[in-house]
Amino acid sequence: STLGASAAERGGRYFGTAVAASRLGDSAYTTLLNREFNQVTPENEMKIDATEPQRGQFTYGNADRIVQHATSRGMRVRGHTLAWHSQQPGWMQSLSGSTLRQAMLNHVTQVATHFRGQVTWWDVVNEAYADGSSGARRDSNLQRTGNDWIEAAFRAADAADPNAQLCYNDYNIDNWNDAKTQAVYRMVQDFRSRGVPIDCVGLQSHFTGGSNYPSNYRTTLSSFAALGVDVHITELDIRNAPADAYRNVVNDCLAVSRCRGITVWGIRDSDSWRSGESPLLFDGGGNKKAAYNAVLTALNNGTTPPGTPTT
Ligand code: G3I
């Protein structure tokens, strides 16, 4: 009768949400969070600017609050994110070369060590590939430290927390035919063949409507899975929350055994980063939307639980 419980009955999957520490005092928010979800991802609180605002000085208060809220209720935590070109504190933006490489690796080591045993999955590296047809790495200060920066980050995370599952996370890697998808696929294939410790790929899945939800999404999920990694739908939201598109995403995940769960990027439309787009499963008043019912019904193998509103 809830998203999390129904997902758990489908091969132990999870259904999660991004959580903002600033909203944990809002009881309407926590009522939905605690009732519906069995996984959380801190929306901003584990990013580099939040956890290492000054070089070598680590602050974990808001992230710890979310982790405590989650783990005390049996919810699993996805850590987001250890290495990223964006949301870098000023001191990191100003570094380059081997100094930046060492600072990045130290950040990965320190943060993964702090949360060891509490974080089930880490987005070790986020958004490292360029959009468009090039299939190239995104230009960034991290990329300019050398093409091996991604595998170096994964090896550091593995050393710090050998039990965490280590993911590469990106957007616009949903369409199997896109150059960006193919480029990430080749990186994962290469890492698997050389023993670089990667366990999973996260598809953010920020969709702009039924139109950009690709019909080959299931092929993308199963193709990554065939490399021997789990796949996760990590930041799902869909402009105007069409029930059909949400249902298709859920069914695609359920069709791929290595698709271990779905995280929506916020609870209520009023919690979303996409202001004015109403992309989530609950409206601003906390009411279930049609997309919620479509998702729950799909998780229940197409069977609508008794008492579920259909509109
Ligand atoms: O917390 C500060 C606040 O103290 C300050 O007064 C205010 C003024 O701008 O900013 C607040 O920080 C904002 C933060 O969200 C918390 O609300 C940042 O400016 C704002 O840039 C930040 O946006 C986040 C964005 O990532 C950038 O990191 C969004 O909430 C978050 O939903 C979004 O999430 C990303 C994923 O991490 C990666 N994939 C894409 C996704 C959507 O952009």
From TrEMBL:
Coiled coil regions in record: none
Domain GH10, chain residue ranges per copy: 1-298
Reactions accelerated catalytically: Endohydrolysis of (1->4)-beta-D-xylosidic linkages in xylans
Statement: the UniProt record of this protein carries the keyword Signal: yes
Active site: E235
Keyword list, A-Z: Carbohydrate metabolism, Glycosidase, Hydrolase, Polysaccharide degradation, Signal, Xylan degradation
The protein's Enzyme Commission number: 3.2.1.8
Membership in a protein family: Belongs to the glycosyl hydrolase 10 (cellulase F) family.
Name recorded for this polypeptide: Beta-xylanase
Organism whose genome encodes this protein: Asanoa siamensis
Organism taxonomic ancestry: Bacteria, Bacillati, Actinomycetota, Actinomycetes, Micromonosporales
